[in-house]
Design brief:
about 190 residues, alpha/beta, 7 strands
Length: about 190
């Protein structure tokens, strides 16, 4: 983190039909964060729903943004919200679903490729960089031979839904740690064995 404003983007697809999908876990984490800072999502001048607030008085301002586009075209809304708040990708945190992590696992990453995630691919293309923080929310691999693109567009199973509040809280805690400590110290906290 370099500035006093941190833009936190929760990836997902818009509309009620997608709200409970595994692909929307990033937006679910933002709902948890908004509740913690007492903020409400509102329409914005950029193509995002935005909520603003601070974790602590005098702490960095958090701009929570849910792109109004579908996952695969997240780059335009992300780029526009960064421009609106005059924030560089160094102060961007993207919260997204991650097939390559077991369900109920949270991992932080500082940069790198998109790993086949089309939302990240479009953000990297639109911002011209892969140098931004990611909160990777483990959703696990699809069972059997189920197509991954079908799997991510399904709601969490009844068993997963029992644990989901803990996963969302862990994701929100991870964003808070990045805001308070910076990425490296947050990684040490989040990745420490429990």
């Amino acid at each position: 983190m370099t500035g006093t404003t941190l833009v936190v983007v929760g990836l997902g697809n818009p509309g009620p039909d997608y709200a409970g999908n595994r692909h929307n876990v990033g937006q679910m984490v933002l709902d948890e964060l908004a509740a913690r800072i007492g903020a409400t999502f509102k329409k914005h001048k950029t193509p995002n729903q935005v909520a603003e607030g601070r974790l602590v008085p005098g702490g960095p301002k958090l701009v929570l943004a849910k792109p109004g586009s579908f996952m695969n075209t997240s780059g335009g809304p992300v780029s526009s919200v960064l421009g609106f708040y005059s924030v560089t990708p160094a102060d961007l945190v993207v919260v997204h679903d991650e097939l390559d992590l077991p369900f109920d696992t949270v991992r932080l990453k500082g940069n790198g490729g998109h790993g086949g995630h089309n939302g990240l691919r479009d953000i990297i293309k639109a911002t011209g960089t892969n140098e931004f923080s990611r909160v990777r929310m483990g959703i696990g691999r699809p069972p059997g031979r189920q197509d991954p693109s079908d799997f991510v567009l399904r709601d969490f199973s009844p068993t997963e839904k029992k644990t989901l509040p803990n996963l969302l809280a862990d994701g929100a805690d991870a964003v808070e740690a990045i805001a308070e400590l910076g990425l490296l110290a947050a990684q040490q906290r989040v990745h420490a064995p429990s």
